[in-house]
Amino acid sequence: LCCGTNAESPPLQCVLTGKWTNDLGSSMTIGAVNGKGEFTGSYHTAVTATTNEPTVSPLQGSQHRTNQKGQPTFGFTVNWNFSDSITVFTGQCFVDKNGKEVLKTMWLLRSRVENMKDDWKATRVGTNVFVRLQPQK
Prior knowledge:
Radius of gyration: 18 Å
CATH topology: Lipocalin
Strand order of the largest sheet: 1-2-3-4-5-6-7-8
Number of strands: 8
Subunit structure: Homotetramer.
GO molecular function: biotin binding
GO cellular component, one term: extracellular region
Number of helices: 0
Low-confidence stretches: 1-7
Organism: Nipponia nippon
Structural class: mainly beta
Protein name: Avidin
Mean pLDDT: 87
CATH architecture: Beta Barrel
CATH class: Mainly Beta
CATH superfamily: Avidin-like
Helix content: under 10%
Order of helices and strands: EEEEEEEE
């Protein structure tokens, strides 16, 4: 027989690989995480500060691989195909009380400016919450 009322259940694992969507309607796909914690994928933004039509852009990143708790920290860069800008995301993968995976992230978006005096307005900061995109039934 097992486990009294004080027994701890093993922590649920949060896995980055798969399809995700965020609070703004953007989506991304993260490929397999290799043994070094590295991964690649693609990002399709639903929002843009440019007049250009958003296209799917590549992402590459890494996950902290020594985390044994199953809720790893990670970071990735998106190199936007449709504008002269780049975004870095950093965050942590959590499993909520209902067993649902959630990526809590913060990002910095750097846009190209014409000269150094405009540098002050070239970087934006924000947060996004991603949840796993469930396949259509």
